Every structure is written in C-alpha cells, then in structure tokens.
Amino acid sequence: MGRHGWRPVVEDGLKLDIYRLQKQKILRQGYWSLQWTNTVTGEKRASISYYVDLASYFITLCYTSTTFEGEKVNVNDKVRLEATSTNFGGERFWFMCPRCSRRCAKLYLPSGAIHFRCRVCYNLTYESSNESHKFDGLFRHIASDLGTTMDAVKKALRQKGYK
Asked: Which tens digit of pLDDT belongs to each residue from 106-151?
C-alpha cells in the first residue's frame, strides 16, 4: 500500500524513465548502468545494469531485487522497445511492458516487487491522487449529519478559503 494506506504510489518505488535515458544519451547500443539515490541524504538506494540492443529493439535489465520476505533475487529481464517517428524526423523510444505489452515511457519497481512493469499492471497511482481524496470520508459524514451532499460540503469549504 502507499504511504497513506490507499493504492500503492509510484513515488514509493523505483522508476525507469525512457525519456531520461534518451535525454542523458544512455539509450544507445551497449552496456550501461544507472543508480538511484535518496534526494535528501544522497545515499545510494539501488542500481541497475542494462544492455541496449537497438538492432533487435530490446533492453536487458540486470539487477538484484528484494522480495517482501527479504529474499534477494537476481533478475535478468528482457524488455522490448518500440520506436515511433517524431514530427521533426527523429525517433522516440518506448518500453513495451513485459506483462501486458502496453507502450509506456516509464516502468516501475514497487517495494517488494521483483520485475519492472507499467503503472497499470501494478495498479499504481500518484501521491497527489491519494491526497486529493484524503478527507472524502469526513466530508461524507458531515454531509450526512447536515442532510446535504458531500459536494455541497466541499463547495462550502472552498468558499470559506479551505482547499
């Protein structure tokens, strides 16, 4: 679950972003590696090695994952790439989710998971989505007590300057 007990959130796990790989010019033929660090402490969180094969449109991910039970698992996953043409004559690459074959720019590895997959496969949401409905239960309760709707309670609070 996510930080607040709702759906798991993308911010709690690791993310592979194909735009970032392209921008940093590390989505080229050959062997590469990435490292994730804690933005506050600068401490290394995780690392991954990968091999890009542009001739066959695959990227092979090599890393060690830790399960919920604390077991370390060595992973060697092949992820298909797809290229689309841009309006200016270049190419944009996409990951093809190994589970559902959905074309996506980002793959995620939530805490306790073993394989990188798309956000849809892991049923991930964004922290801001969870936060936007944080008080819905309270609003429903107030609305019930007042004999009105939850939307009317939210509207009244917004008019008073509460977000």
From this structure: 999 988 889 999 989 988 887 665 556 667 778 788 888 888 887 7
Q: What is the 3-state secondary structure of the chain?
A: CCCCCCCCEHHHCEEEEHHHHHHCCCCCCEEEEEEEECCCCCCEEEEEEEEEECCCCEEEEEEEEEECCCCEEEEEEEEEEEEEECCCCCEEEEEECCCCCCEECEEEECCECCCCECCCCCCCECHHHHHHCCCHHHHHHHHHHHCCCHHHHHHHHHHCCCC
Does residue 36 surpass a pLDDT of 80? Answer: yes
Q: Which residue is associated with the tokens 């969870």?
A: 130
Q: Which tokens go with 27? A: 């989505």
**Which residues are CB-contacts of 76 (< 8 A; sequence separation ≥ 6)?**
60, 61, 62
- Which residue type is seen at 51? Y
Cα distance between residue 119 and residue 10, in whole Å: 7
Residue 10 has pLDDT above 50, yes or no: yes
